[in-house]
Design brief:
The chain is mainly α. The chain folds into three domains: about 70 residues, Endolytic murein transglycosylase (Dna Ligase, domain 1); about 90 residues, Dna Ligase, domain 1 (2-Layer Sandwich), CATH 3.30.1490; about 130 residues, no CATH class. Helices cover about 50% and strands about 10% of the residues. It has 13 helices and six strands. A two-stranded antiparallel sheet has the order 1-2. A two-stranded antiparallel ribbon has the order 3-4. Strands 5-6 form a two-stranded antiparallel ribbon. The radius of gyration is 26 Å and the shape is elongated. It is a single-pass membrane protein. InterPro entries: MLTG-like. It comes from candidate division WOR-3 bacterium.
């Protein structure tokens, strides 16, 4: 009798440990996760709910699902209804979603100029996805190729807007939603604004303009300055690209900052950075597609966010000295 009790004790302990393993390591969506609608009839016993989930391909083990509902007090909190659930997730994760109602949503506003890092932080804070999973998905080359992104990361293609996401959600579905909106907006702009510039150049340029500009009417001028510098074989010398290389924002870069060895350091390397440096909004995309035609090659920011533009370096230096 004692041996039998010991056996059941060890079995229970192993089950709990296995469930904890599921909780810690398998509680995120798999990269290939697809959402599907699952109907749970009202007053359905927990055991039958587990059977439904298993039949629909949401979970693999009815036993582990039942154990999860008991350990985490979800037995009496799962109600019947229509649920939007991912396929092939851990039993604990399924329990967690159903415990919340399976369809809790949150509206999140992504402002212009945010990076993937910043977006990931906010999404994790709101319970949508884990930041690490989100960043990993933004650098999934096969996924990016499928979405039509020509860069090794999704930076620049997560269009700023207010989105509604399920809690929790798949990082792949979140990214796809934002990228789809980006291409919808960008293609409409591309059709309405004649431009000989390549898509890659436009999007990278727009991301730099987004970080440089404060006043909307200056966006096309700033875009024009950077294009003028590119065409003359000058370095862009754009401070936001250095900040991106340093992964921090500073009110003013120092001499040491400008020496960082990164392809994003446009004070050190010629040409555009290898990818966009943020996710630009519509106004910056318009500016990059239709830059102002001027002879300006230099500019600096004033305290109110406006910029002073100059055609020559001597003129630029005089105005800088005057500011001091």
């Amino acid at each position: 009798m004692r041996e039998l009790k010991k056996f059941f004790f060890l079995l229970t302990l192993l089950s709990i440990l296995f469930l904890i393993f599921h909780y810690i390591f398998l509680t995120d969506y798999p990269s290939t996760s697809k959402l599907k609608t699952v109907i749970i009839p009202h007053n359905t016993p927990t055991k039958e709910i587990g059977a439904i989930l298993k039949r629909e391909g949401v979970i693999k083990s009815n036993f582990l699902f039942l154990l999860a509902t008991k350990l985490f007090g979800a037995e009496k909190r799962i109600r019947g209804g229509k649920y939007l659930l991912p396929e092939e997730i851990s039993e604990f994760f399924a329990c967690r979603i159903l415990k919340m109602g399976g369809k809790e949503r949150v509206a999140i506003t992504i402002p212009e100029g945010w990076t993937c890092e910043k977006i990931g932080e906010v999404l994790e804070k709101e319970g949508v996805v884990k930041k690490d999973s989100f960043i990993q998905a933004t650098e999934d080359l096969a996924f990016l190729k499928k979405l039509g992104i020509p860069f090794p990361k999704a930076e620049g293609f997560l269009f700023p807007n207010t989105y509604e996401f399920y809690i929790p959600s798949s990082p792949y579905l979140v990214i796809e939603k934002m990228v789809t909106h980006f291409f919808k907006v960008y293609r409409a702009l591309r059709e309405s604004i004649p431009s000989s510039l390549s898509d890659s150049l436009v999007i990278i340029l727009a991301s730099i303009v987004e970080k440089e500009a404060v006043i909307d009417e200056e966006r096309p001028i700033i875009a024009g300055v950077f294009l003028n510098r590119l065409r003359r074989g000058m370095k862009l010398e754009a401070c936001p690209t250095v900040e991106y290389a340093l992964s921090l924002h500073k009110e003013r870069l120092n001499t040491l900052d400008l020496t960082v060895d990164s392809p994003y350091n446009t004070y050190r390397y010629y040409g555009l950075p290898p990818t966009p440096i943020c996710n630009p909004g519509k106004k910056s995309l318009i500016a990059a597609l239709g830059p102002a035609k001027t002879d300006y090659l230099f500019f600096f920011a004033t305290e109110d966010g406006r910029h002073i533009f100059s055609k020559t370096f001597s003129e630029h230096q005089k105005r800088l000295d005057r500011r001091k």
